[in-house]
Lipoprotein
Amino acid sequence: MKKGLIALALAGGIGVAGCAQKDEPLAAAPPPPPPGAVAGSTAADRNGDGVIDGYYTADGVYHPNYTPPPPPPPPAPDRTGEKG
């Protein structure tokens, strides 16, 4: 009976010994693409000012970042009406 327990402990120890290996550190995740870019594309700074102007897709086509114009200001209030 004791030989069976020793054999079982030995087999379990050998199986767990493979889990004790150190894992290699994982590489840092790449930064997310800029707004409007497609995942897997390459950012582009065409004028060299340090701001991403667009991106290149895998087929080499440049796509500029489009920022929509701000909405128009609200209309001015009317000056007509009852005096209070």
